[in-house]
Design a protein that fits this description.
With about 70 residues, the chain is mostly helical. It is built from 4 helices and no strands. Helix 2 (about 20-35) packs across helix 3 (about 40-50) and helix 3 packs parallel to helix 4 (about 65-70).
């Protein structure tokens, strides 16, 4: 547990520089290319993932966690 906490801490203290407009443009291109649409919350999660080293994605059944994760990947 302590090792995991230390590893998470190392990830969280390093700043991430992200070009938010570039991420938004990529999401738009991805959605158009795949013929899919992300909900506002899914889009926000993808944007957050681009700007964070650690992200916890939660939600109830059928909320799109798997789709959102695949989009992030």
């Amino acid at each position: 547990e302590q090792n995991l906490a230390q590893q998470l801490h190392r990830l969280l203290v390093r700043p991430v520089t992200v070009d938010t407009e570039r991420v938004r443009n990529w999401i738009d291109r991805f959605a158009a290319a795949t013929g899919t649409a992300l909900s506002d919350q899914q889009r926000q999660a993808v944007e957050m993932a681009a700007g964070q080293r650690v992200l916890v994605l939660t939600g109830g059944p059928g909320t799109g966690k798997t789709f959102t994760t695949r989009t992030i990947v």
